[in-house]
Amino acid sequence: MRSYIGITDIDWFSYLSSKPGVDEVNFWRPGGNSVFRAINPGELFLFKLHSPSNFIVGGGIFTHFSILPVSVAWESFGEKNGAISLADMRTRVDKYRPEARRPNYDYNIGCILLSNPFFFQRPQWVPAPRDFSMNIVQGKTYDLSIGAGKELWQALSSNLPASPAIQLSSLEERKRTGSPITVFPRLGQGSFRVLITDLYKRRCAVTGEKTLPALDAAHIKPFNEDGPHQTSNGILLRSDIHKLFDRGYVTITPDYHFEVSKRIREEFENGHEYYALHGSTIQVPSDPHKPNLEYLRYHREHKYLG
Length: 306
Known about the structure:
By secondary structure, the chain is an alpha+beta fold. It has ten helices and eleven strands.
């Protein structure tokens, strides 16, 4: 398995490491042009502080990469961006891209989404690999089974008992077996939203609407009713249709057709736009990400007003 060491600043690390119960983070990059392909989902992403603090101080499991407007990144992750507010986040981004300093400019940033983050206490910080050059600007990939990568893995493993990472089943398994393995990351709310948005190619599954601020990642089986943050339990909907879906005025059939309840007409004496979509086939991603039939049946049986 590979691991990527990404360079970050002490403020980002200190803010997040001080907050309890962080289940995901957005390791953002100020530029919104290049795509991150260094490792695959399920592999280990590590945090290294800027020089002269050449230490690895934590990490997480890589989930997904996306290029997003800074406002959408904030709406999706909030303080898990490593900032106290959107204004604070913009100030931090602006430090690395001065041309972004326009108050109403919703520029794009690169978003490396990580699940199950962990943060080492100061005594457990691990020195950067011997071949990690001080001239590296963003980061470097290592094979954890050979050479400097293997030495890095051994150093990290010895520190896991003293860190919150021991609570993570994936990392605990790595520690127990003595070798790194790839695991499928558990999604948090923010990662769920972004992944669904990208899987549906940033278009509403029903209408084809592609105005990003108007799109929502909807749970088919509600999260508060044990619906998981899984791609098969998600669907991208225009915000008004999302509200109707959550309240049971519309549903999706097991053969992926959009269905509209007669209750809209009865209660609101309106709904012409929605009835025009009744019976239309929705657009879904391929397996294993298409809506799960069990969740669709749950919505139809327990939420839909008929």
